[in-house]
């Protein structure tokens, strides 16, 4: 049973070296680009854990690293939603790029490079996550996202093959859907969403903002529109003592820890309007 897996190994160091105050969270609330950054990262981390849930529920065999598979399921879910909803103005791609940007910031702190344990961890390095996400988005439409290949960590020799990399991931997602998900028996199950209370002032701000934005409900809606699970789950937030998100199959709990969201708020303070983000804002989807 996988439990209490750390989603971003470097986040723990980020959080304790640069603690997040309640005032910092309040300030972020009024800066829309930072709020979008935080929400995008929350959605991605929840979809990553949903990836583990899907693998567990349907007993899907995985070749390679299970964490890479969960990342790919999360990324492909957002890319496919973007393709299915051109009127969304790249909202799902923005969520995905927010996750890539968070990993870029983590890598640029140097904390992972200076910690030998990160090289042997189950999760890929933040830099590898950036490249994987960028390659999948770029490969999904190399004309529309041409700038992504130039402005990310993608080397040219990989960027040239990102359309192949996307096609492989797309075929894998279709195979998983057709082989397992589409053939599953579903009983119209209802899921539970609960925002756990906290005594921490900074976390209480997060608790309020997440409820106001219905972040968990939106993440659950994305999953419900993508896959029907055979059994109900409990999606909840709580204080965990460390930045984390995890799937507990024994209780069917998918938990997002407030400490991880605090880490995203810290990273959002380091976020800058990059050339890529500026181009995304000006981008018109090609007919």
Could you please describe the fold and organization of this structure?
- With 287 residues, the protein is α/β, with parallel strands linked by helices.
- The chain has one domain.
- It has 13 helices and 4 strands.
- Strands 1-2-4-3 form a 4-stranded mixed sheet.
- Helix 3 packs across helix 11 and helix 4 runs antiparallel to helix 5.
- The chain is globular, with a radius of gyration of 18 Å.
- The N and C termini lie far apart (46 Å).
- The N terminus is likely disordered.
List its salient traits.
287 residues, four-stranded mixed sheet, single chain, globular, 6% strand, 59% helix, 4 strands
Order of helices and strands: HHHHHHHHHEHHEEEHH
Instruction: Give the distance, in angstroms, between the N- and C-terminal Cα atoms.
Output: 46 Å
Strand order of the largest sheet: 1-2-4-3
Give the total of domains: 1
**How many DSSP-defined strands?**
4
Strand residues, percent? 5-15%
- What summary fits the major beta sheet? 4 strands, mixed
How many whole angstroms does the radius of gyration measure?
18 Å
């Amino acid at each position: 049973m996988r439990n209490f897996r750390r989603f971003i190994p470097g986040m723990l160091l980020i959080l304790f070296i640069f603690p997040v105050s309640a005032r910092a969270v309040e300030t972020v609330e009024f800066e829309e680009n930072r709020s979008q950054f935080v929400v995008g990262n929350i959605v991605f981390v929840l979809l990553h854990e949903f990836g583990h849930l899907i693998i567990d529920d349907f007993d899907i065999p995985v070749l390679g690293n299970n964490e890479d598979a969960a990342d790919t399921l999360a990324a492909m879910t957002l890319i496919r939603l973007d393709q299915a909803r051109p009127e969304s103005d790249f909202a799902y791609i923005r969520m995905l790029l927010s996750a890539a940007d968070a990993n870029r910031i983590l890598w640029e702190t140097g904390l992972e490079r200076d910690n030998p344990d990160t090289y042997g961890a189950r999760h890929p390095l933040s830099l590898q996550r950036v490249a994987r996400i960028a390659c999948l988005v770029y490969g999904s439409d190399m004309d529309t996202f041409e700038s992504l290949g130039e402005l990310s960590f993608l080397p040219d020799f990989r960027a040239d093959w990102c359309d192949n990399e996307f096609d492989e991931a797309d075929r894998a997602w279709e195979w998983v859907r057709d082989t397992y998900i589409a053939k599953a028996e579903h009983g119209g199950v209802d899921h539970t969403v609960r925002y756990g209370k906290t005594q921490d002032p900074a976390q209480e701000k997060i608790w309020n903002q997440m409820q106001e934005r219905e972040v968990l409900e939106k993440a659950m809606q994305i999953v419900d529109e993508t896959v029907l699970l055979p059994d109900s789950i409990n999606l909840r937030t709580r204080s965990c003592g460390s930045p984390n998100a995890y799937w507990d199959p024994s209780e069917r709990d998918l938990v997002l820890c407030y400490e991880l969201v605090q880490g995203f708020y810290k990273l959002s303070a380091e976020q800058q309007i990059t050339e890529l983000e500026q181009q995304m804002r000006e981008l018109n989807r090609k007919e």
